[in-house]
Amino acid sequence: MYILVVEDDADVAKFVVTALRDAGHVVEFAANGQDGLALALSKHVDVIILDRQLPGGVDGANILKTLREQGVNTPALFLSGLGQLSDWVKGLQSGGDDYIVKPASIDEILQRIEALHQQHVAQTTPPLQQAD
Questions:
Q1: SS3 content of the chain, % helix, strand, coil (to 5)
Q2: What does each of the 132 residues of the chain score in pLDDT, given as a tens digit?
Q3: In a domain, 129, yes or no
Q4: CA nearest to 23, candidates 109, 85, 103, 99
Q5: Domain range for 110
Q6: Domain containing 23 — which CATH number?
Q7: How many CB atoms within 10 Å of residue 23?
Q8: DSSP H or E stretch at residue 89
Q9: Which has the closest alpha carbon to 48: 64, 31, 35?
């Protein structure tokens, strides 16, 4: 999979990006909201992993709102330190497909992005037509 990670915490970003690459994925990385939004708009990625709180004037929820408004339906997983129910709700209402609270295991992250990707492919792939 081709995955975009938008994360401002250098340690978390290194951990996630390295683990995703070790699992065989191609990873783009942005350390702030503006760069993350620009990459999400300019590249076709299979899944986006993003933090809710980001520097650069654009947080994760705003990134997703903008993407969804522009018709980009790439599956998105929030990986955030904000763990209150209201935080989850805001993330999902902004267009997120899933939400994990930090700290999280890489196994959980890998399983969830795989599930998101499979669901997205199933929803966007037309059914096979039977030959007459």
A1: 45, 15, 35
A2: 999 999 999 999 999 999 999 999 999 999 999 999 999 999 999 999 999 999 878 899 999 999 999 999 999 999 998 888 888 888 888 889 999 999 899 999 999 999 999 988 887 766 665 555
A3: no
A4: 109
A5: 2-124
A6: 3.40.50.2300
A7: 16
A8: helix 85-93
A9: 64
